[in-house]
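Internal ticket - ligand job 266, 3-methyl-2-oxobutanoic acid:
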Amino acid sequence: MAEKININKLNEMKTNGEKITMLTAYDYLMASQLDECGIDLILVGDSVGNVVIGYENTIPVTMEEMIHHCKAVTRGAKRAMVIGDLPFMSYQVSAEEAVKNAGRLLKEGGVKAVKLEGGKEILGTITKIVDAGIPVMGHLGLTPQSINKFGGYGVRGGGEKEAKKMIEDAKELESAGVFSIVLEKVPAKLAKRITDQIAVPTIGIGAGVDCDGQVLVTHDMLGLFEKFKPKFSKRYAEIGKEMKTCYKNYIKEVKNKEFPAEEHSY
Ligand code: KIV
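stdout (structure tokens):
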């Protein structure tokens, strides 16, 4: 079997200039497919709330829901490293609660690392989680769990003041011990500045080509989730349309008594 992905391998990839690939998965089937195709990292994102559970945003996602989906994904991933998102309010209240919840994603969900959103304000919490032996991935730029604070899903780090703050945040996250940082909806030039100034890999989503790796929400890139189409998410297929054609054909054939045919009958 191919070499399993771990933190050392990710650092090696950054050093060698080999791009890191990450996609989201929320179930066994999709995780098995991604793993078979050679993806490096699988993120059980709290985007599960939007694209699978049907919430308006990621705020309502619970620890129990995350554990449920992490379990399914980790059963399907043999080579890829699986990272689980800590959901809103599972790490903001206290560092102790954060360590406990991060531990649950590893012990019960089977993931190898956790991701959480934020900069300076959560450094103490990150240090405590890392000290407990749990690898942490940071997340800067657009942080959907803070949507009510920012009031929208716009690009982050536009002006020089905001850009400098994000660079500082990235450096501090690195000092706190994160093994990687997701940069979401950040100008490509700023993402490059951050990538050049920190030793740990950056994984971009809407952050240009110079990040050390890229991530997309799989349901978006497949055209499976059709509700909205972010500019940064390339559609590699229109699977949602294809699926609806199948459903319609099935409904029509059952109604017309075309299915089941002889060959499907005993
Ligand atoms: O929840 C998620 O899918 C994410 C990615 C967009 C990085 O955090």
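Auto-summary: The mean pLDDT is 97. The first strand starts at residue 20 and ends at 24.
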